[in-house]
Amino acid sequence: LVFPNGSVSNPDSCSLTTAYRINRSAPNYDSVERFVHAAMLSGRTVAFHLSGCSGGGTSGLPLISAVYAQ
């Protein structure tokens, strides 16, 4: 889970808006998770592209599909 500083963007109207979830079924899950942690620890701003909800439909948390460090 990724907990943002501030409000959660929710483009797909997911039912939960307390955090973002990295899609564990994505083939690059481990790389994305390490990238997010490294970027945040180094003080870089991290931006996400969101697509879908963790529970399918509008159920669950917004899913991270891509990550960018600024």
What does this 3D model show about the protein?
By secondary structure, the protein is α+β, with helices and mostly antiparallel strands. The protein is 19% helix and 26% strand. It has one helix spanning 29-41; strands spanning 21-22, 46-53, 62-69. The radius of gyration is 12 Å and the shape is globular.
Care to give the gist of this entry?
By secondary structure, the protein is an alpha+beta fold. Strand 2 and strand 3 form a beta hairpin. The model has no long low-confidence stretch (mean pLDDT 87).
The percent range for strand residues is 25-35%
The main pleated sheet reads as: 3 strands, mixed
Mean pLDDT score:
87
The radius of gyration over CA amounts to: 12 Å
The count of helical stretches stands at: 1
Ends apart, CA distance between termini: 20 Å
Q: Give the strand line-up of the largest sheet.
A: 1-3-2
Oligomer: single chain
The topology string of helices and strands comes to EHEE
Secondary-structure map:
Layout: E1 21-22, H1 29-41, E2 46-53, E3 62-69
Parallel strand pairs: 1-3
Antiparallel strand pairs: 2-3
Q: Features of this protein?
A:
70 residues, alpha+beta, 3-stranded mixed sheet, 1 helix, 3 strands, 19% helix
